[in-house]
Specification:
By secondary structure, this protein is α/β, with parallel strands linked by helices. It has helices spanning 14-26, 37-46, 63-73, 88-97, 109-141, 150-163, 179-188, 207-215, 232-235, 251-263, 289-294, 300-306, 321-337, 347-355, 361-375, 388-392, 396-401, 410-428, 433-440, 444-454, and strands at residues 6-10, 30-34, 51-55, 78-83, 101-104, 169-172, 197-201, 216-217, 229-230, 240-244, 265-267, 274-276, 280-285, 309-312, 344-345, 380-381. The strands form five sheets. The chain has a five-stranded parallel β-sheet, with helices on both faces. A five-stranded parallel β-sheet has the order 7-10-13-6-14. A two-stranded antiparallel ribbon has the order 8-9. β1 (6-10), α1 (14-26) and β2 form a beta-alpha-beta unit. The protein is globular. Bound molecules: adenosine-5'-triphosphate and magnesium ion (MG). Adenosine-5'-triphosphate (ATP) binds at residues 145-147, 173, 175-181, 286, 326, 362-363, 366.
Length: 461
Amino acid sequence: MIDQPKILIIDDEPLMRISITDAMIAEGYEAKGVESGREGIDCISKGKYDVIITDLKLPEVDGMEIVKASLKYSPKSKVIMITAYGSVDTAVEAMKQGAYDYITKPFSMDELLIVVRRLMEFRELEYENIKLKSEIDIKYAFEGIVSTSDKMQDVLEKVKVIADTASTVLITGESGTGKELIANAIHHNSSRKDNPFIKVSCAALPETLLEAELFGYEKGAFTGALKQKKGRFELAHTGTLFLDEIGEISPAIQVKLLRALQERRFERLGGTETLSVDVRIICATQRDLKTEVKRGIFREDLYYRLNVVPVHIPPLRERKEDILIIANSFAMKFSAQNNKPIQGISDKARELLVNYPFPGNVRELEHAIERAVILGNSREIQPSDLSDDILAFYNKDFKASMKVSYSEPLPEAIEHFEKEYIAKAIEEAHGNKTRAAERLGISRKTLWEKCKNHGLEKQQK
Ligand SMILES: Nc1ncnc2c1ncn2[C@@H]1O[C@H](COP(=O)(O)OP(=O)(O)OP(=O)(O)O)[C@@H](O)[C@H]1O
Ligand SMILES: [Mg+2]
């Protein structure tokens, strides 16, 4: 069943706000009124509203900002803008920015209700469409993504809504959470699905090679450029370009990328011809780019270009409901692949899995189950088949090594724990920084920074 429609009303004039809210409730909608744009954005970022009715003129945060916030946090919501008499230009501008409709003051409640009712009919139609579609192809398109948690369902819901738009998507999440899987799902559920899906791993390449990879080069552009080569932007024409680990790119590449994104134009290295492409951009990072912007490491203008539609994938430990169903699906997959009949996972092994924090997220779970299926001797996966890390988590020594004295406030305790945790990982990896970072589920660069902050540099090789 389709839920009761929810409406948010943002207006600083109390009389207007209350009368609209009351009229919407009388019509059978769930309605909430707030008096400032700031409160409005807060509501939009937290709840799902089908319709947002906002005054254009609000102190501090105005109606245009509400449209932006709605596109960002709740792209399915439809915004109706209330504008002053005679301000058609601003109304048109609001529609360009993404508002769904507008209504000019003074208006009667009936006029507004007609607009809202039309929107609701549209919503029901959309719902029917989605339902139909979901029965036909979403089952296939999303079959790679196993989940049951509300948090992941919200992510998938958002993915379905934004897939077939041209919007740039920024996927964030820790290592192994499924960022690439989501990027794939977005492409394969867009009308570009039969066109190229091109991936660039930005962290894997040094600056000059990355530039050549992205934009291509002309023959003779540099030593070794024996013939012309097309870049990934060109190869992705009419399709999707997936820029993985975007947080790792150097300032020089950031500038070039910004221009290519703004204008969808660029030149090959050593070339003079300006090429223009039609490419949908999806990028992913484990980093908190906003913090990187504050720290001056990532360009703010590029950040806003990329963060049009943010999709955050929560770490597995924050959606523990997913652990066992993903584990089961991996168990089935690896059992079939390796021709080893496995009936399932024993109760004790399930308990260990559910309680383990999975710093390497789904990828770590995948490897743990693959290993358990290959090495195990019984029909059910047993605790002893699980990885040392999962077992060590229960190891008494490990627990005892965490000196808990409650003598310091939580932030300091967390700092100390982090230091010990990192030092232990480095020690166990015999000083191999790459392996330690993998184990901790963070990038090498993040590990390096954390070591520096904790004064652990000397322990690394
Ligand atoms: N919900 C899920 N259901 C099934 N498999 C999943 C799910 N999430 C992730 N995986 C699997 O886990 C592995 C890691 O996923 P993916 O490569 O997409 O993660 P990532 O976030 O891009 O990681 P990294 O930051 O390290 O690049 C892949 O093999 C992927 O198929
Ligand atoms: Mg990835």
